[in-house]
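Case study 2.
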Amino acid sequence: MPLSSGTTKRRSRPSACVRRLLWASGLFAVFLALAETATGKAAVVAQSSSGQFTVRSPYPTTPSLAQLIRQPESQVIALQPDPLAVAGERVKLALLRELGLRDRWQGRIRLNIRSDISQSGTPLVVVATKFSDGWAYTLDLPEEIERDALVRLLLQALLMELANRNSGPFSPELPIWLLEGMAERIQSVVGPELVPQQAPLLGKVGSQLARMPPMTKDQIGFGAAEALRNWLREHPPLSFNDLSLPPPRLQGDNLKTYRASAQLFVSALLQLPNGKRTMTDMISLLPQRLNWQTAFLEAYRAHFPRLLAVEQWWALVSLQFLAGTEPHSWSPQLTRRKLDDALQVLAERRVPQDQTPVRAPVPLQEIIRQTPYAVHRELLRTRLAQLEVLQQNAAPEFVPLINQYAKTLREYLYRPGRPAKGTSGASRTSSNIEPAAREVISKLDQLDRRRLSLPATPPGPPPKKP
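Prediction:
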């Protein structure tokens, strides 16, 4: 090895004071790096396998010793960048399967894990921003969040992205029933694996975890239909009007009933002929139409000519779902409640001009008395179909009475010589009611007296003789 020309000088070793100073400087640099990480100055970025989701966090994904001990199932989960990126892909994959679509995303979704916000203290919203090259969606998340809340927020961002691919003059208005029902349906199919949890081996995988394919496996039966049916039997499904305009601040059993009703409603829409394509068409129309009702009727025009037809269809669908497979399996209490619902209509009562109209149940007799045949014909046909479902599933002691109700409506609707259209006009008085209407009103009044005379609780079996 050639030597360099010129004289060489021997390096002197640094003094002990200098060595201590260098060691202190290195230690300070380490603490400074840790402080920058803790304060978010050195943000960690993880990107999902498809590239649609970008997660920013002040902390990297690290293994947790607490995960070595199996913890009880908890709805509150700690967010970390790599598992959150995988969760986004899994929710997207589940949504695409429900709608029968391929992954052709256009808008990026940015997820920011922030230590300065909390789920309870800050409203969590998806912010959509339009740029020259398309839309982007930003969602700020706390470090801890409930599992189902995270699924709904991810799903909201994905539905907005899907709608804005057909960008229009309006911001897409997502129906609440669509978001809640689809979230419940997806979670019932995929199960808890929809949101992956931190595992002890994540440290060996490192940042490549987020790039892994979102291998969700269907767990058909995880949220079994029977569990949904049992809940809705004790908590009757909401009407289409209540699904469309839910009261604010739902909580407890009321919130669970809304979500269960929305899940059943979305499932029934998907099971219509060409149901997946039709629901996708409705979502695509949202930015083009002023409200979701207009987009819904345009997409589902082959099934529902107007919103009243949706209400009638939904009432029959929910009854058929509650029926199950075993004949006459309903309890007397459930049978009575369903029979009462079939024999009345929720309508706005007239009130003084300075008061807000109130919705209250109106008996079928009042509808027949106040409207011409052409107006109440379709309503009575729907109620007759509900009674036929009730006949198959009602408690045995109610079957003869239900048969009489169904026979009375059937004779009124399909009597010989019945004109196709009734007298025009919005209302009638007792002086111009046709004889057939008077007759059916009288028969329904008699049946109502029989129904109201039935005991609230059926008598039990006689005691056994000793």
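The radius of gyration is 32 Å.
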